[in-house]
Amino acid sequence: MACSSGTSSGATSSMLQNNSGSEEELQALMEQRKRKRMISNRESARRSRMRKQKHLDDLASQVTQLRNENHQILTSVNLTTQKYLAVEAENSVLRAQVNELSHWLESLNEIIHFLNATDGGPPPPPSSFFEPDATFFNKAYLSQPIMASADMLQY
User: Fold this and answer.
1) What is the rounded CA–CA span in Å between residue 108 and residue 44?
2) Where is the composition biased (Low complexity) (predicted)?
3) pTM for this structure?
């Protein structure tokens, strides 16, 4: 039996060596996998940081582009507003002139109507500018003001 126990103890010793050898190999394999995973994770993190940086750069570029577009639009709006205000002011002046000219035309038409309604001819002119003929200046057509602006008298 000594032989069998010696064989068994030798086999056990050999198995222990195999087990310890395979344990070392297993640990070495685990360490190698751990290092590979760590390297892979570092590479993945580096790629992720690069994508993130590229995204930030793209967003910064887009912000710059949009700011430039906003500046151009604001400049265009300001220019258009100035032109609109100038046209509006010109329209206001033209409306005032139309109003004045309409009143003037109305007054002149009343004078013509009055002159045509009298007995055939215009009334005689006043004898003197400072002493006007009462019938001439008391007529209804002279009660209408004739308005003119300084713009109408420019050459």
Assistant:
1) 94
2) 1-14
3) 0.45
